[in-house]
Design goal:
By secondary structure, the protein is α/β, with parallel strands linked by helices. The protein is built from 3 helices and 7 strands, in the order αβαββββαββ.
C-alpha cells in the first residue's frame, strides 16, 4: 500500500512539474491590455505580424513597454537582434528580441503572420524563444 501511495504522489508531482514548464497561450489583445500581469512567465501569442527584416531597426523614440526612458531605446543586448512585432492593438510598444543565431533562420524579406513564444518582461525585453509561421 505504501508503494502505491508513493507511486501516485510521485506521478502527481511529475505531471504538475511538466505542466508548469509549458507556455501559457494568451490572446494578443489580452496581453496588450495588461503586459505586466505576465512578467516572468513564458507565454504564446497567436496571429501577430513579424514585420520585414529590411530596415528592421528599433524606432529611435521607442522605449520598452511605453515607459519614457531616453537612454534605453530598445537596444538589444549583445548577441540578440530586435524584431519588429506588430500586434492588433497598435498602442502596444513592447521591445522584442531574439538570439542572433535564431533570427537568421526565421526572418525573411516579407511580413509574416506568426505565433510567438516568449519570456515576458514588460520593463526591459521580451525574449522570443520560438517563432512559428502561420499558413
Amino acid at each position: 500500500m505504501k508503494k502505491l501511495l508513493f507511486l501516485i504522489i510521485g506521478l502527481f508531482l511529475y505531471v504538475n512539474s511538466s505542466f508548469a514548464q509549458m507556455a501559457e497561450v494568451v490572446d494578443a489583445n489580452t496581453y496588450c491590455n495588461n503586459p505586466k500581469k505576465y512578467n516572468g512567465r513564458t507565454i504564446t501569442i497567436k496571429n501577430v505580424i513579424l514585420k520585414s527584416s529590411v530596415n528592421n531597426t528599433p524606432p529611435a523614440a521607442m522605449a520598452p513597454a511605453g515607459m519614457a526612458k531616453p537612454n534605453n531605446q530598445c537596444t538589444p543586448p549583445r548577441g540578440y537582434k530586435y524584431l519588429n512585432i506588430e500586434f492588433p492593438n497598435p498602442t502596444y510598444d513592447g521591445c522584442f528580441v531574439m538570439p542572433q543565431n535564431m533570427t537568421n533562420n526565421n526572418i525573411s524579406g516579407r511580413d509574416l503572420r506568426v505565433t510567438i513564444t516568449f519570456k515576458a518582461d514588460s520593463n526591459l525585453y521580451n525574449t522570443i524563444s520560438n517563432v512559428l509561421v502561420q499558413p
